[in-house]
Task: inverse folding
C-alpha cells in the first residue's frame, strides 16, 4: 500500500504538469494579416497564323496578334494577390505583364484589378466592393480568361465593357450556400463565372478600365442571377442585367474629319439576358443584349447615337479520360453596333463561327486549338467600306499556377 501511494504521488503531479504544458503548447496563436495572403496566376502564349486565308482580317478588341505582321504572342501574363485578411475584409490585386502601350511596344505591366470587399455580416453574404474590378454585366465578361474555353470574348457582350473593368462601388448579396456553389463551379473545372452575387447593384465611372472620368455622371448597373441545382448534380443559371449612363469620347479618339457634337457625350445603355447549363457533361451558354451607344456613320462622316444588338450561343462537352480533361466546343456570334472605345466609335457588323478543343493533361497546363470562320465589317473615318472575311486556325498554350 505504501508503495502504491508513492507511485501515485510521483506520477499524479507529473501527469498533470505534462497535460498543462500540452495545453499551453497547443493554444492557438493569434494570426497576422500577412499569413492570409496567397498568390496565383496564369500565362497564355498564342499563335494565330495557321491556315490563314485573309491577313487583313483583324480583331482590335480581342487578340491583336490576329492578321498580317504577327507571330507568337503572349496574350496574358497575370499575377494575382488576394486574401481574407480580416473576418470582413478581403482584397484582390491583379497586374498583367502582357499589356501593349502601342502597336510596336508590348509586354508592359498594367493594373487590371485592385479592390477590397467589406462584409456587413460574419458570412459576408452582404458585401460592398470598392476599387477597380470587373463590372457584373454578362456571364462571359465576368468569367476569367483562365477558365473560358474560346480564346476571346465575343464582340456582342464585351463591347459593352472593354477589358471588363472600371472604377466603382458594387453591392453584392448571395446566401452562404450559393456563394459556396459559385466557388465550386470554378474550382471543379465547370467553367463558372465566379462569385458576383445573386443580386448586384452598383455605380462606376463608365469610361472603361484605367481611363479617367470625363463627366460628372456615373453609370448605374443592376444584375440578378441564380445557379439552380437540378437533380443530383446538374446546375443551370439564368441571369438578367442592365446599365445606363453617358460615355464621353476622348479627343484623341476621333479622326480629324469626323463630325461629333460639342460635348462629345453619348447615351450608353444596355440590357442583357443569359442562360448557362454547366457542362456535366453537356454544356450550353447563351447571351444576348440590346442597347444604344455611339457609332460612326459612314454616310454622314459623323458619330451618332445608334442602336446596338447582338449575342452568342455555345455548346460544349466535358470529357474525362484518366487524368485528362477535354472540352470540345462550338460557338456562333453576331453583333451590330458601335464600339465606343475604338477610333471614331468604329461601326461593326460581325458574324463569326468557332469550333475548338481544350485539352487539360494536368491542372498546371492547358492546350487549346480553335478554328475560326469570320466575317467582319469595321468602318471608321479613315477605313470606310472595310469588310474582311477569313478563316484561321489558332493555338494557345496556358500555364496555371
Result:
Amino acid at each position: 500500500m505504501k508503495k502504491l501511494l508513492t507511485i501515485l504521488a510521483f506520477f499524479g503531479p507529473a501527469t498533470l504538469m505534462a497535460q498543462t504544458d500540452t495545453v499551453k503548447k497547443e493554444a492557438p496563436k493569434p494570426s497576422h494579416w500577412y499569413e492570409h495572403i496567397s498568390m496565383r496566376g496564369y500565362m497564355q502564349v498564342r499563335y494565330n497564323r495557321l491556315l490563314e486565308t485573309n491577313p487583313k482580317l483583324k480583331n482590335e478588341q480581342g487578340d491583336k496578334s490576329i492578321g498580317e505582321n504577327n507571330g507568337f504572342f503572349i496574350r496574358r501574363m497575370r499575377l494575382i494577390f488576394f486574401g481574407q485578411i480580416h473576418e470582413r475584409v478581403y482584397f484582390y490585386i491583379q497586374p498583367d505583364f502582357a499589356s501593349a502601350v502601342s502597336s510596336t511596344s508590348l509586354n508592359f505591366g498594367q493594373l487590371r484589378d485592385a479592390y477590397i470587399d467589406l462584409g456587413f455580416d460574419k458570412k459576408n453574404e452582404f458585401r460592398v466592393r470598392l476599387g477597380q474590378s470587373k463590372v457584373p454585366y454578362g456571364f462571359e465578361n465576368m468569367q476569367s480568361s483562365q477558365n473560358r474555353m474560346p480564346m476571346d470574348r465575343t464582340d456582342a457582350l464585351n463591347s459593352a465593357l472593354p477589358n471588363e473593368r472600371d472604377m466603382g462601388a458594387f453591392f453584392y448579396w448571395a446566401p452562404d450556400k450559393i456563394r459556396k456553389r459559385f466557388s465550386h463551379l470554378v474550382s471543379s473545372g465547370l467553367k463558372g463565372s465566379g462569385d458576383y452575387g445573386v443580386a448586384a447593384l452598383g455605380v462606376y465611372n463608365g469610361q472603361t478600365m484605367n481611363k479617367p472620368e470625363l463627366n460628372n455622371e456615373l453609370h448605374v448597373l443592376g444584375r440578378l442571377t441564380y445557379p439552380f441545382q437540378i437533380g443530383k448534380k446538374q446546375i443551370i443559371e439564368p441571369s438578367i442585367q442592365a446599365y445606363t449612363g453617358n460615355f464621353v469620347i476622348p479627343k484623341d479618339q476621333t479622326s480629324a474629319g469626323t463630325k461629333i457634337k460639342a460635348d462629345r457625350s453619348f447615351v450608353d445603355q444596355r440590357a442583357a439576358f443569359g442562360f448557362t447549363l454547366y457542362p456535366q457533361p453537356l454544356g450550353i451558354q447563351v447571351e444576348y443584349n440590346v442597347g444604344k451607344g455611339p457609332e460612326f456613320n459612314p454616310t454622314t462622316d459623323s458619330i451618332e447615337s445608334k442602336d446596338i444588338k447582338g449575342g452568342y450561343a455555345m455548346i460544349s462537352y466535358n470529357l474525362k479520360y484518366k487524368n485528362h480533361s477535354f472540352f470540345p466546343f462550338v460557338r456562333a456570334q453576331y453583333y451590330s453596333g458601335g464600339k465606343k472605345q475604338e477610333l471614331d466609335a468604329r461601326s461593326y457588323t460581325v458574324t463569326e463561327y468557332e469550333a475548338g478543343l481544350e485539352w487539360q493533361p494536368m491542372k498546371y497546363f492547358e492546350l487549346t486549338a480553335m478554328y475560326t470562320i469570320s466575317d467582319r465589317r469595321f468602318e471608321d473615318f479613315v477605313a470606310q467600306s472595310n469588310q474582311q472575311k477569313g478563316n484561321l486556325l489558332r493555338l494557345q498554350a496556358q500555364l496555371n499556377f
The CA atoms of residues 5 and 218 lie 83 Å apart.
